[in-house]
Structures are given as C-alpha cells and as structure tokens.
Write a structure and sequence with these properties.
The protein has a single domain (1-66), classed as Herpes Virus-1. 14% of the residues lie in helices and 10% in strands. It has two helices and three strands; from the N terminus they run ββαβα. The protein has a three-stranded antiparallel β-sheet. A hairpin with a 5-residue loop joins strand 1 (22-24) and strand 2 (30-32). The protein is globular.
Length: 81
C-alpha cells in the first residue's frame, strides 16, 4: 500500500492525500508537479526513474489506512536536471 507521503521532498510543499499535484516514482519518492516539471525535468533525483501522478485514496479508506505523516526533505534541496 502506498505511503501517501505528506510533502514534496524538494520544496516541502504540503501534498495532502487528495492532492492532484503529487507525483511519485517507483520507490514512492514524492514531489510536487511544479518541482517535477520545472526543477527535476521529470527525472527522480533519488533513483533516476520517471514520475506518475500519485493516485488518490478514497476518503472512506483513509480512516482505515491513513496517509503517512513522516515528512521527507532533501537537506540540500533539489538540483536541476
């Protein structure tokens, strides 16, 4: 099951579980659409993979399977692609 991480690893923007702007790679590295398209050029800085839009977990499942609250942030920010 996806973690649904709460923020962009690059800019720390909040990405709630229902965000249309959340992007993930195959390892669930999580970034906002602005960072993926602008700074990262569509390539994950952690694994080199591509990104897809993170699916939205329906609210009735969030009660039983809540989103992660652990924030992950790249200490030195993100480097341009």
């Amino acid at each position: 099951m996806l973690d649904l991480r709460p923020n962009c690893e690059c800019c720390d923007r909040d990405l709630p579980p229902d965000s249309q702007d959340a992007r993930i790679c195959t390892f669930e590295c999580t970034f906002c659409a602005d960072c993926v398209d602008g700074v990262l050029g569509g390539v994950c800085p952690n694994c080199g993979g591509n990104f897809v839009q993170r699916p939205i977990r329906p609210k009735h499942f969030l009660e039983r399977h809540p989103a992660s609250t652990q924030r992950i942030l790249k200490a030195k920010g993100c480097q341009a692609a």
